[in-house]
Amino acid sequence: MEEPEMHPDLEPIAFLIGRWEGAGVGGYPTIESFNFGQEIEFGHNGKPFLSYVSRTWLLDQAGNRVRPLATESGYWRPLPDRQLEVVLSHPTGIVEIYVGEVVFHKIELQTDVVARTVTAKEYTAGRRLYGLVNGNLMWAYDMAAVGHPLTSHMSAELKKVA
After folding, report:
1. pTM of this prediction?
2. Residue 159 counted as an annotated binding residue
């Protein structure tokens, strides 16, 4: 199947398109620090949004996969004036709507809305930073959950593989 033509509205975030793989570190006041592997895929179908899927897994000291961690999927929707909306869904019963902006190859996002099912853990806010640095996708994620304010939670460096 032929790749669809990219919608012109995607130009500010086109650098994200593709599959990215790498590793990162995580931690939070309520858990021990950990190393994780990650795969992110950004795609498009010719419409003015990117589809997004992220999968992470726990890594042992030698860098081997131990077990799956978090997964999330959603859509990245560019708006006029380099503004951006991101809608993310998690199998743990949480849905987030982020708003932010794109400045060159840097994206800053913060939650506008967080919705949780009755069984989801207490989570109230998130802040994400993405940037293209020397061709690699770097990101950091702060979250407010289980009684803690926005606190550093995870960060990673990913290389484009496809």
Report:
1. 0.95
2. no
